Amino acid sequence: DAGITQSPRHKVTETGTPVTLRCHQTENHRYMYWYRQDPGHGLRLIHYSYGVKDTDKGEVSDGYSVSRSKTEDFLLTLESATSSQTSVYFCAISESRLAGEGDTQYFGPGTRLTVL
Amino acid sequence: KQEVTQIPAALSVPEGENLVLNCSFTDSAIYNLQWFRQDPGKGLTSLLLIQSSQREQTSGRLNASLDKSSGRSTLYIAASQPGDSATYLCAVSGAGGTSYGKLTFGQGTILTVHP
Asked: Which one-letter DSSP state was computed for residue B79?
């Protein structure tokens, strides 16, 4: 299994509070991703990073920010949590390879976030 | 906007059957396609990755095919076992530039294999 950990694994918070989720990898992979998984919507990309301090938005980025100051850590912040952000959040990593070789994404165990 | 559809949404089969899961996508400009497995309450496990230039990939009892021009992929599971019970997800990756690595997922097929 790829060395990916997410913390915390479970969190309950109240509307309006800031929340930061952490993804840590030991694989030294260049690309890191944050997804959310919701019934009826499946998995959707929130933000991704293609290197230290290089990030970009995904499909559902409103209300979220990210930071990557080290290769191994990718943080997802909800500046002011809302009930619509109750979800399971997954981090993923992939390694850039030569063009044409494809690139597998490996997923972390997930963080279950409940916003009351 | 890329859309990925998986059929059927759920499938229940007796142990030992061979089965096929289907995935279709609307934009054929993909870099690769991945099949994942997800057990309840767990993260995703990558099963197979097919590059856009390939037609199929095999791993053990699993075989995945890709017809990029028609926007279809199938996952074939031979001699199914109760341990194969899980949700199977199909995802396509954008083709290069700012789309690189961005996966668009289907809703998944929930597979139950009963003894």
From this structure: S
